[in-house]
Each structure stands twice: as C-alpha cells, then as structure tokens.
Structure prediction request, 308 residues.
Amino acid sequence: MYKHVVVTGGAGFVGSNLVLEMASRYPEAQLTVVDDFRSGNFKNLEGFKGDVIAADLATMDMKHYFGGSKIDLVFHLGSITDTTDHNQFRQVHDNVESWRNLLNYFEGRKTRLVYASSAATYGIASGLNKVDQEPKPANVYAFSKVQLDNLSRQFTRQNPEQVVVGLRYFNVYGPREGHKGAASSMILQLAQQMRRGQTPRIFRHGEQLRDFVYVKDIVSCTILAARARASGIFNAGSGVPRTFNDIVTNLNRVLNTGYQPEYIDNPHAHYQPHTEADLSQTTLKLRYKPKYTLETGIDDYAASGFLV
Prediction:
C-alpha cells in the first residue's frame, strides 16, 4: 500500500512504536525516520532496518533529502514534548516551524500527512473533551500545538484535495517511554517507585480522572488516520477515564505488591480534575475503537518487559 513513509520523531516514545509497527505491517515499504534526538533515544529503534536522518526539522532542507523521492505518507510526531519547558521562543519556534517546513515542502505533492496534536490544547477544562471546543492552552507547549492545528486548517482550505489529519493524543503510556524520565507516564513512574520498594505517591485523594490510553491503541489510531477520506482533527484516547487509585491497584496486581498510596497535597492551582476523550468523530470517521482497557494495557506493558 505504501512505498515510502516518513516518520518524524521516530526515535521517540510514540514514534518508535509507530515505526516498528509500520515495518511489521508493510515490510516492503521504505521507512525513513527523522529525529534530532533531543527527546528520542536510539535504543527505541532496535531492530529497525530503514533510514535515519538526524536533523532539525525546523531548518531541514527537505529538497536535499526528499527531492528525488515520492513520499506517500508523513507521520509528524517530532516536537518538544516537555510541558515543563517554558521557553516560549524555543517551544513555539521549534514545534511550529517544523510543521510549517513540512507543509510548505509537501504542498501539492499528494502526500498524506498525519500529525500529533495534543489534548493539552483543551487546557484545564474538565470533563468530556470534544474537538469543537475552543482551545484554552494553559502552557506554551499546548499553545504551540494549537498553532499546528491552525496551520493545518489553513493549509487544507487552500489545498482541499490533500488530506491532513491531526490527532489529539491524551495520556499515552506503554513500552519505549523510559527515556523520558520525569516526562514519562505516571503509570511508569509509579511502577518504578513500587519496584524500588517505595510507597507510591499521588495527589490527594487519588480520585482525579485521566484518559489513560495504551500506546498500541494510539499507534492503531495513527495508522487509521492515514487512511482518512478527508482532513480533520480528532481525539485519540481510550474514551474511558480512570483514577490514579486505579493505577496503583493494577500495578499492585501485576507487580505482586500490596502498597497503599501516600496521598500528598497538590501544589498546582489549575490541575485538571477530569480528562476524557470524546471519540464519537474518531470512531465515525477513522473507524477507531480502542482495544485495551487500563487493566489489559498494564498487563501487556508488564509482559513486554518495559515496565521497569
């Protein structure tokens, strides 16, 4: 189906899982990873047999690398993902100009583009998150993702024949996130505490709700987005919010431990009490239905050997 596919951010968490799944599904396709390795890790690409370009996407000379190739599909997952990086110039410049560079080069080439937006664009609004909500970014990372969405809408208005799909990823967890350290999922961070013999620490009283989604579901959703009939922006989550207490319960189960969480005060004044992806349009337009519950996702994560 695909002859040449480019994955930006392919050495990162979601990107590497996507690259390896694409290699498995489409063994005859040429796969090219583009990554600057600021938030990626070469170990995530163990066994990958395609090409790797180490480059800054914001300034990359696309013609130099792709001028002689027909690219069928671009998955754009490359960005600064550290939401605690409050350098406004760096966040906006790197994230937005990378996307602009890709759009400018692939305009009119019939290349399909799928990019990672973020549920962070919803801000601190709690409850069911719908794609037609007004964005309310609470940090500069989220603001940069809003700009990606804005550029995409402008691009598709000017190029209605070209398909561009944005996916607002919710709280993704799973294999190959360990290199992210403090930016990794709370599922991994709590598991690491418990493996060290420490009591898992969560905000009082652990009943905050999050849409935790297993990376294999996110990869499936991202691949489905490449087949979309029309451009659009969609939520990518589990659609089922769960509590931090639920995480501790399930980690105790897979780790054979019996820890009770230590509840600590929440220092964040604008902490989201509830995130939940409305998947109605994602299911309708992309035919995406999550396969993993929190229980089966944590089971698979533990079985993979990466939950350490």
Q: What stands out?
A: The chain has nine helices and 15 strands. The longest strand covers residues 112-118. Residues 88-106 form the longest helix (19 residues).
